[in-house]
Amino acid sequence: MRVSELANSLNTTPDTVRYYTRIGLITATKNIDNGYKFYNQSAQQRLKFILSARQLDFSVQEITSILSESDQGHSACPLVREIVEQRLAQTEQQFQAALMLRDKLRNAIHDWQSKPDKAPTGQMICHLIAGGFDE
Amino acid sequence: MRVSELANSLNTTPDTVRYYTRIGLITATKNIDNGYKFYNQSAQQRLKFILSARQLDFSVQEITSILSESDQGHSACPLVREIVEQRLAQTEQQFQAALMLRDKLRNAIHDWQSKPDKAPTGQMICHLIAGGFDE
DNA sequence: CTTGACATATGTCTTAGACACAGGTGTATG
DNA sequence: CATACACCTGTGTCTAAGACATATGTCAAG
């Protein structure tokens, strides 16, 4: 299959497939006539795995490690478990960060409700932001 | 003041100051002897504003627009209000995304609790991830 | 054969700084 | 004075994960 056919079959974009091909995560044969790449079913299987792992927010680098492990005949499961645990912890942090930012933005909007717009002075660019927020 | 002195005075890093200088957000004079950059109080004021806006997750590009508006003597407040509203909406989305990812990861860990590790087959790289999650 | 619509490969671009490198500066010592 | 060593500086390069631009290739209709 060609790049778009493969991409469509797994609901992703040709650019994504090309990227994974470029960095060697999936392989393709090259048509000598026109230089087009052709992917076999094995590549499709592999791409399916990659996309699933990306859904869990695994980085491409992590997936590379997993596939490398697997390619050597070893079980990648321990590595996968480790990554998913660590990703959960990290997501928890992002979650809290988003929460705090949301509050900060809400406060800003609320506090600014009653304040007028002003032209900048040499001292102040925009009095709404002025000095700072959480310091 | 030199780059580190300015950075320390506002609790940021020299690299950050250099970056803003490089893209022209703040300006500095150049010592001819050694090429070192020198910043005046106006630059400090400007940097303070930039850092405050970054705290609200404004992009550097957005801040560039705001400063440009302000530099022309116009009030940047309307633009600031607009950006903060839009950033709030976007943060809400990130918030929901983090929430969903967290659940997905928790489910994965839970579902995998009882499953053993397996060596890869030609068909399957890691049976834990196997086919997919939210499709 | 040619036109036009679509597909492809390759190279460049993106964010917001972090990091590596080579050289400058300043001060405590010999 | 010279030297050693710790710290500072500017410039150039690198990052993640594709998106986008460009030049070329393909294929069916006319």
Name some characteristics of this structure.
homodimer, 135 residues, two-stranded antiparallel ribbon, DNA-binding
Describe the protein.
2 copies of one chain form a homodimer. By secondary structure, chain A is mainly alpha-helical. Chain A is built from 5 helices and 2 strands; from the N terminus they run ααββααα. The first copy, chain A, has a two-stranded antiparallel sheet with strand order 1-2. In chain A, strand 1 (29-30) and strand 2 (37-38) form a beta hairpin. In chain A, helix 1 crosses helix 2. The termini of chain A are far apart. Chains A and B meet through helix 3, helix 4 and helix 5 of A and helix 3, helix 4 and helix 5 of B. Chain A binds a DNA duplex (30 and 30 nucleotides) through residues 2-4, 13-16, 18-20, 22-23, 33-37, 54, 59-61.
- Helicity level of chain A, as a percent range? 55-70%
Please indicate the percent range of residues of chain A in DSSP E strands (runs of 2 or more).
Answer: under 5%
* Class computed from helices, strands and strand pairing of chain A: mainly alpha
How far apart the termini of chain A lie comes to 57 Å
The oligomeric state is homodimer
- Which radius of gyration of chain A do the C-alpha atoms yield? 24 Å
Major beta sheet summary of chain A: 2 strands, antiparallel
Largest interface: A-B, 57 and 57 residues
**Mean pLDDT over the full residue set of chain A:** 92
Q: What is the overall silhouette of chain A?
A: elongated
Number of helices of chain A: 5
Order of helical and strand elements of chain A: HHEEHHH
